[in-house]
Write a structure and sequence with these properties.
Elements (H helix, E strand, L loop, with lengths): L13 E5 L4 H12 L3 E6 L6 H7 L3 E4 L12 E4 L8 H9 L3 E3 H9 L4 E6 L4 H14 L5 E8 L4 E4 L5 E6 L3 E3 L2 E4 L6 E6 L13 H13 L6 E5 L3 H7 L5 E6 L6 E9 L2 E8 L2 E8 L4 H16 L4 H10 L8 E6 L2 E6 L4 H11 L8 E5 L24 E5 L15 H10 L4 E4 L2 H11 L5 E5 L7 H8 L1
Parallel strand pairs: 1-2, 1-4, 2-3, 4-5, 6-9, 6-12, 7-9, 12-13, 13-14, 14-15, 19-23, 20-21, 20-23, 21-22
Antiparallel strand pairs: 7-8, 10-11, 15-16, 16-17, 18-19
């Protein structure tokens, strides 16, 4: 393949996006359309809500990949990271000698040009943290641009084009494209970066934790001495990675030596009140609808970032109080017969554990029922087989689904939901195994009682279990 064409020409009017229906690619398509570009796209699976969103923007989408999709000769082709070099659109692009780039390259050149980038990185909490930060900037009147991997309820969108000088973006450690196997976040030069956590994940591209740490090490090493890294101080891997780096490092967390500390926390449903200390002195007391210590720590990192941007504590407080959360992050989908159904994106063992721990205090009148679908490339592998049993201790009743896409994983690497249930029972947990979603719904319709909270955890649609439960209960 002629990689000399991996560049963005000076004058671009028409852009084609291969695999346009992904969350990030769809957001980029919308931003490019709003900026006045002629945008087309293609994808193998074109379905709502992304198909409706793109259609509403007036973006033509071809269902399925084919050389003819780029026959009109767009000025630029943006190649999604899930696209292989043998993709028919790529073949057509190559035959016509078209210019092409990755999604981060397009964001850098066509969206972020001239702005200060505020990048949120880490194994966990990227979407929520970036969303909080974007809302703080907006509330403070800074008119930010943002591109985030979840729908912000305050904006009903996962992106925004603003006229302010800052852009908030998630820094993803996942690979960039088939012609660039480095992490996406290496393409950004953050004025401020937030690093929430470093753990093993993405078992389909990282062999082990060492490779994950190498990726984050490259990211931190690329931050200049004029810029700031806001780093969680209770992660041993982060402590190791930040040592000796040239950038200014600001610590946050629970430790007494952190510059920014999370102080006392009080829960008065639906609010959580929390103190923030800077250099051991009370900076402010804030209230939020966010649940759980992990989210308060995410919020704390945003306080530190806001302070670097000279945003006053009063504006930060107003933002926390009016922040409406992110879809699929502890999102209450509805209540029926006194039973609450909540949706969450949790899939990594740590995320499952922290989400359950966060939600538990908010259902004192009934049980917390955890429903889990292992669906990511990592969770369907047995790399976390012995760790998941420790993640459900806070749940009163546990439903584990057989992974629906398990055939994609080599037999010797497959995760066993049945083994997880057996291990949970060994820990005296009330756990149940199910082969499909219908069986879970049938079970819960009989089992759930008024006052219970059903927490559904999956990074996929889970066969629309949330709405089906609400309509059946």
């Amino acid at each position: 393949m002629d990689l000399s064409k991996n560049q963005i020409p000076e004058h671009v009017k028409s852009i084609h996006l291969i695999a346009i229906c992904g969350t990030g690619m769809g957001a980029l398509a919308g931003m490019l359309k709003d900026e006045g570009y002629l945008v087309t796209g293609s994808d193998q699976k074109v379905y709502p809500p992304m198909s409706e969103f793109l259609s509403g923007k007036g973006i033509d989408i071809n269902e399925g990949f084919h050389e003819k999709n780029v026959a009109y000769g767009p000025d630029l082709v943006v190649v999604g990271n899930a696209v292989s070099k043998d993709n028919p659109d790529v073949t057509g692009m190559r035959q016509k000698g078209l210019y092409f780039c990755s999604m981060p390259q397009a964001v850098n050149r066509l969206i972020m040009q001239g702005k200060n980038s505020l990048v949120v990185a880490g194994t966990h909490g990227k979407t929520t943290t970036a969303s909080i930060l974007a809302w703080i900037l907006y509330t403070a009147g800074l008119d930010p641009t943002f591109m985030i991997g979840g729908i912000l309820n305050n904006f009903k969108s996962n992106y925004r084009l603003g006229n302010g000088e800052h852009m908030v973006i998630e820094g993803d450690e996942y690979d960039t494209a088939f012609f660039d196997k480095g992490p996406k976040f290496l393409h950004y030069d953050p004025a401020i970066a937030i690093l929430t956590s470093v753990e093993f994940d993405h078992a389909d591209i990282f062999k082990d934790l060492v490779q994950v740490k190498q990726a984050f090490d490259a990211f931190i090493s690329g931050i200049s001495d004029q810029h700031t890294l806001i780093a969680f101080d209770q992660d041993k891997h982060i402590a190791e990675l930040v040592r000796g780096k040239r950038c200014r490092t600001v610590s946050y967390g629970r430790n007494a030596n952190a510059i920014w500390q999370l102080g006392s926390v009080t829960i008065s449903r639906p609010w959580t009140f929390f103190d923030v200390l800077k250099h051991d002195t009370l900076f402010g007391t804030f209230k939020t609808r966010l649940m759980g210590e992990h989210n308060l720590l995410n919020a704390l990192s945003c306080v530190a970032a806001a302070d670097r941007l000279a945003i006053p504590a009063e504006a930060v407080a107003a933002a926390f109080e009016t922040f409406e959360g992110v879809k699929r992050r502890q999102e209450v989908r509805g209540e029926k017969s006194g039973i609450t159904v909540m949706d969450d994106f949790a899939h990594h063992p740590t995320a499952v554990k922290e989400t359950i721990r966060a939600v538990k205090p908010f259902c004192p009148g009934g049980r917390l029922i955890a429903v889990f679908e292992p669906r990511t490339n990592s969770s369907m592998r047995n790399v976390f087989q012995n760790i998941y049993p420790l993640s459900f201790d806070g749940a009163d009743l546990i439903c584990i689904r057989q992974p629906s896409l398990l055939e994609k994983i080599p037999p010797q690497e497959r995760f066993s939901s049945q083994q997880l249930v057996a291990d949970l029972k060994d820990r005296d947990k009330d756990a149940h195994y199910f082969t499909d979603t219908d069986a879970i719904i049938d079970f819960l319709v009989t089992e759930a009682k008024s006052g219970d909270l059903i927490l559904v955890m999956s990074n996929g649609g889970f066969d629309n279990i949330h709405e089906r439960l609400l309509s059946t209960l």
